[in-house]
Each structure stands twice: as structure tokens, then as C-alpha cells.
């Protein structure tokens, strides 16, 4: 018997079917997570390699490597999403789609996700939302990187250890 004010941290009783569904769901999420992590590692490595090669070839005055990565990542996510979508020619399960679109493309560039979302808004004729997504993403990301730069520069100027 619990005393006054004592918490009961025991989980509520579950039926066998409820527990089985919870474990199955957690297992699927856990497995999907590992696929996304693996895809992210591949995408990040590809981004590093490609942007570095482009910088070596064309210099770093303009971020050609980043631009190429953003454009090619947008192409890949648009192509794969359409090819493997409900009306697509290639059947791909949720794990494969998450591995490529969230993992590889997300690790390669988050710009690909932004581009796909904006395209979907435009295709749905949600012009205000598509425009707001474009302007908001560009402006807010530039402001955020500027604020981050200012904050880090201020920390860099601190004296001491």
C-alpha cells in the first residue's frame, strides 16, 4: 500500500495484444531510425566529397559546391519521391523511402526537403504558403546564420581561457 504523496511509477496493465503492438511499433521505429542514420552518414559523406571537389576545381569565392549539392539534392529527392510515390513506377516501401529521402537527401542537404515541400505546396496551388516558405526559409536562415556569426564573434573576442 502506498503512503500519501507516493507516486506509482508502474505502467498500467496492458493486454497481450496491446503490448505486442507497442513492441512492434517501437521495433519498426528503431529499425527505421538506423536506416535514416545510415543514409544520413552516406549523404553527409557525399556532400563533403562533392563540395570539396568543386571547391578545388573552381575555388571558394562563390560557394559553387554548396549550390551544386543543394540543386542536385533537390533533383534527387524530387525524382525519387515521384518515382516511388503512390502513382510512381517503382514500388518502394516506407523504409526505402525514408532511407533515401530523409537519410541520404537529408544528410546530403536539407535544401532538398525544403524544395520538395515548396513544390508540393505549389502543385496544390497553395501559392501564399509556397511563397512564404521560400521567403521565410531564405530570409530566416540568412538571419539565423548572421546572428550565429555575431554571437560566435562576440565569444571569440572574450578575454581569458
3D architecture notes:
Helix 1 (16-58) runs antiparallel to helix 2 (64-83), helix 1 runs parallel beside helix 3 and helix 2 (64-83) runs antiparallel to helix 3 (94-108). The chain is an all-alpha fold and 161 residues long. The model has no long low-confidence stretch (mean pLDDT 84). It folds into 2 domains: 20-110; 125-161. It has 5 helices and no strands. It has helices at 16-58, 64-83, 94-108, 111-123, 127-157.
N→C terminal distance: 55 Å
Q: What is the number of independent domains?
A: 2
Low-confidence runs of at least 5 consecutive residues? none
Radius of gyration, Cα only, in angstroms?
23 Å
Q: Can you give the mean pLDDT? A: 84
Helix content: over 70%
- Helix count, DSSP H or I runs of 4 or more residues: 5
Number of strands: 0
Molecular shape: globular
Beta-strand content bin: under 5%
- Could you say which structural class the secondary elements and strand pairing correspond to? mainly alpha
Biggest beta-sheet profile: none
* SSE run: HHHHH
Summary keywords:
161 residues; 5 helices; 0% strand; 2 domains; mainly alpha
Topology:
Blueprint: H1 16-58, H2 64-83, H3 94-108, H4 111-123, H5 127-157
Quick gist of this model?
The protein is mainly α and 161 residues long.
Amino acid at each position: 500500500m502506498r503512503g500519501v504523496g507516493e507516486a506509482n511509477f508502474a505502467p498500467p496493465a496492458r493486454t497481450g495484444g496491446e503490448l505486442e503492438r507497442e513492441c512492434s511499433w517501437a521495433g519498426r521505429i528503431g529499425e527505421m531510425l538506423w536506416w535514416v542514420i545510415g543514409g544520413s552518414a552516406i549523404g553527409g559523406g557525399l556532400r563533403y566529397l562533392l563540395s570539396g571537389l568543386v571547391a578545388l576545381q573552381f575555388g571558394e569565392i562563390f560557394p559553387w559546391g554548396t549550390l551544386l549539392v543543394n540543386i542536385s539534392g533537390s533533383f534527387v529527392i524530387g525524382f525519387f519521391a515521384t518515382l516511388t510515390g503512390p502513382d510512381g513506377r517503382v514500388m518502394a516501401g516506407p523504409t526505402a523511402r525514408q532511407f533515401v529521402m530523409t537519410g541520404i537527401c537529408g544528410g546530403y542537404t536539407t535544401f532538398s526537403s525544403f524544395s520538395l515541400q515548396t513544390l508540393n505546396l505549389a502543385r496544390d496551388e497553395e501559392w501564399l504558403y509556397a511563397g512564404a516558405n521560400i521567403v521565410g526559409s531564405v530570409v530566416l536562415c540568412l538571419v539565423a546564420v548572421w546572428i550565429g556569426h555575431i554571437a560566435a564573434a562576440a565569444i571569440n573576442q572574450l578575454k581569458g581561457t
